[in-house]
TrEMBL record:
This is diguanylate cyclase. Its EC number is 2.7.7.65. GO terms for molecular function: diguanylate cyclase activity. NCBIfam families: GGDEF. It holds the Pfam family PAS_8. Residues 333-467 form the GGDEF domain. PROSITE patterns: GGDEF. InterPro entries: Diguanylate_Cyclase (IPR050469), GAF (IPR003018), GAF-like_dom_sf (IPR029016), GGDEF_dom (IPR000160), Nucleotide_cyclase (IPR029787), PAS (IPR000014), PAS-like_dom_sf (IPR035965), Rev_trsase/Diguanyl_cyclase (IPR043128). It catalyses: 2 GTP = 3',3'-c-di-GMP + 2 diphosphate.
Length: 469
C-alpha cells in the first residue's frame, strides 16, 4: 500500500478511496487521464486499456441507438456548458464491462478547470431486482389471464437471457406418460436443435436436461465436448454452438417433476453464485406457470372428459359436433356419425359385477381409439352408449370404420375376478350428412334410428338407415 504523507495528498489518492467509480478526462483532448480503483472494479479496465473518452463511450454503451439518441446529445450538451460547473443532471444507461457483461449505471459529470470528472454510479443490482419483479408480475398477470403457456415461459426465458448476456435459455416440459421432455420455450435456439430435443426420453447421459430430469437434481456441465452426460449429443451441441449447459429440474409444490430450466453458454464455463440464483429464480417462476397451467388443463379435462374411460364426454361431443357440422356445410366436406351401444350390458353387470362392467367400458374405449383416425372424435354420451364423429369421411369409409369397430370389440377380452374370459359386442348405427341443411339433432336421430335397427336385427351388427352391412 502506498504511503501518503499528510501534506502530500493528491486528487488521485482521494478518488481511489471513493466508493463510486470516477474517471477524469482532458477537456481539450478528451484523453482519459485517470481512473480510480472503483472504476477498475466496475468496468474491469486499467488506465492503459482505455482509448480517448469518445472512443470508449461509443463502444461501452451497449444499446447503440440509445447512445446516439440520448447519451451523445447529453454528453455534447454537457461539454458545451461552461467550465467549473459542479453539478449536473445524470443519465441512466447500460454499459459494457470488459468481460462483455452489462452494468446499469447512473452517469454524472462535472468540469473543474481543464478536467472533466465522470461519475459512474453502479445501480445494476437494483435494476436487476426491479426487472425481476416486473418479469414476475408480468408472468403472474399472464397466468391469471390464462395466456398460452409458451408465451408465459418465453417471458421467463427472455428475462434470464437479458440478465445473463451471451447465454441461451430453454424450458423443457416433462411428459409423464412418455417419460420424455417436450419443447416449452427455447426462442433463440436453432430449429434443428429444438426438433432434435423435442420428445427426448429422460435418462442418465441424456444431456444436462435429460439427466437433470431423470436424477431430479441440478446438473452443471461446464464443458459439453468432454462430459459423459453429453456423449451422444456432442455433435448436435457443437452444430448449435453450445459449449456449457446448467440445467435445473422444475418441480411442483408437491415435488412432482414438471420440466427443466437450462442456461447454455457459448464457451465452456461454470456458473457464478449470481447465475445459480438466476437459475433458482427461473425454475421457481416456471414451476408456478406450469403448475397453474396443468391445474387448468385438469379442470378442463374434468369438464370435457369422461373420468371412467378418458374419452370426451357428452357436452364436449355436442359442442364439437355442432362446430364441425357447420364447417362441413361451409367447406363442403363429407361427415358421418356412428352411435354405438354395448349389447346386453346389463347381463355383464349382473353376471360379473359392476367393477368388471367398468373394465369392459374401459377396454371398449381403448380398442376403439386404437382403430379410429386421429381426426375422429369418440365420446361416451351415456352409460354404455358411445358416439363417434368422423369428419372428412364419406358413406363407405364410415361403414368400414363401424365394421372395424364392431370386429375389434367383438374380439376383445376382459378377465373376470375368477379369471374367466368376459367377451362383449356392440351394435352400431351410422348416419351421414346429406346435402342441404342438417342439424346435430337430425344427424344424431338418424344414427340412433340405425342403431335401434341394429339392435332389433339381433345385435353385434352395423346398420345405416336400414342398410345392413
Ligand atoms: N358397470 C357399469 N354399468 C353401467 C354404467 N352405466 C350404465 N351401466 C349399466 O348399463 C346397463 C344398461 O342396460 P340396458 O339399458 O338394459 O341395456 P343392455 O343391457 O345393454 O341391453 P341392450 O342395449 O338392449 O343390448 C345397466 O345395467 C346399467 O346399470 C357404468 O358406468 N358402469
Amino acid at each position: 500500500m502506498k504511503n501518503i504523507s499528510k501534506d502530500n495528498i493528491r486528487l488521485e489518492d482521494i478518488l481511489d478511496t471513493a466508493p463510486i467509480a470516477v474517471a477524469w478526462s482532458s477537456v481539450t483532448s478528451g484523453r482519459i487521464e485517470h481512473i480510480n480503483k472503483a472504476f477498475s472494479a466496475l468496468f474491469g479496465y486499467v488506465l492503459q486499456d482505455l482509448p480517448d473518452l469518445n472512443t470508449w463511450f461509443s463502444d461501452a454503451f451497449s444499446d447503440a441507438s440509445y447512445y446516439q439518441q440520448v447519451v451523445e446529445p447529453w454528453i455534447q450538451n454537457n461539454q458545451a456548458r461552461q467550465q467549473d460547473s459542479v453539478s449536473m443532471d445524470g443519465i441512466s444507461a447500460r454499459m459494457l464491462r470488459n468481460d462483455g457483461t452489462i452494468r446499469k449505471i447512473n452517469l454524472c459529470v462535472s468540469t473543474l478547470g481543464e478536467k472533466r470528472l465522470w461519475y459512474f454510479n453502479d445501480i445494476t443490482e437494483h435494476w436487476i431486482a426491479e426487472r425481476r419483479l416486473r418479469a414476475r408480475s408480468k408472468m403472474l398477470e399472464m397466468v391469471a389471464k390464462s395466456s398460452a403457456l409458451k408465451d408465459i415461459l418465453n417471458v421467463i426465458v427472455t428475462q434470464i437471457q437479458q440478465e445473463s448476456p451471451l447465454s441461451l435459455c430453454s424450458v423443457l416440459l416433462f411428459d409423464p406418460v412418455e417419460q420424455c421432455l417436450r419443447l416449452g420455450a427455447a426462442p433463440d435456439f436453432p430449429d434443428f436443435y429444438n426438433q432434435a430435443i423435442d420428445g427426448v426420453k429422460i435418462g442418465l447421459n441424456v444431456g444436462s436436461c435429460g439427466t437433470a430430469a431423470y436424477l431430479n437434481k441440478r446438473v452443471i456441465v461446464e464443458d459439453i465436448a468432454t462430459h459423459p452426460y453429453w456423449q451422444d449429443y456432442t455433435q448436435l451441441a457443437a452444430e448449435a454452438g453450445l459449449a456449457a449447459c446448467w440445467s435445473d429440474p422444475i418441480v411442483s409444490s408437491k415435488g412432482d417433476l414438471l420440466g427443466t430450466f437450462a442456461i447454455y453458454k457459448r464457451l465452456p464455463s461454470s456458473p457464478t453464485q449470481k447465475e445459480i440464483e438466476l437459475i433458482d429464480f427461473a425454475s421457481n417462476l416456471a414451476s408456478i406457470a406450469i403448475e397453474s397451467y396443468r391445474a387448468q388443463e385438469a379442470l378442463q379435462k374434468r369438464a370435457y372428459y369422461d373420468h371412467l374411460t378418458g374419452l370426451a364426454n357428452r357436452g364436449y361431443f355436442f359442442q364439437h359436433c355442432d362446430a364441425l357440422l357447420k364447417q362441413s356445410r361451409v367447406e363442403g366436406f363429407p361427415l358421418a356419425i356412428i352411435m354405438m351401444d354395448v349389447d346386453h350390458f346389463k347381463v355383464v353387470n349382473d353376471k360379473y359385477g359392476h367393477k368388471i362392467g367398468d373394465f369392459v367400458l374401459q377396454k371398449l374405449a381403448q380398442v376403439s381409439v386404437s382403430v379410429l383416425k386421429h381426426t375422429d372424435v369418440i365420446a361416451r354420451i351415456g352409460g354404455e352408449e358411445f358416439a363417434i364423429l368422423l369428419p372428412f369421411t364419406d358413406n363407405n369409409s364410415a361403414l368400414k370404420s363401424a365394421e372395424q369397430l364392431r370386429e375389434v370389440i367383438a374380439s376383445s377380452v376382459v378377465l373376470s375376478s375368477n379369471h374367466e374370459q368376459v367377451r362383449f359386442t356392440v351394435s352400431l348405427g351410422v348416419a351421414f350428412r346429406q346435402n342441404g341443411e342438417c342439424t346435430v339433432d337430425e344427424i344424431l336421430n338418424k344414427a340412433d334410428k340405425a342403431l335401434y335397427q341394429a339392435k332389433a336385427a339381433g345385435r353385434n351388427c352395423v346398420f345405416s338407415m336400414g342398410l345392413m352391412t
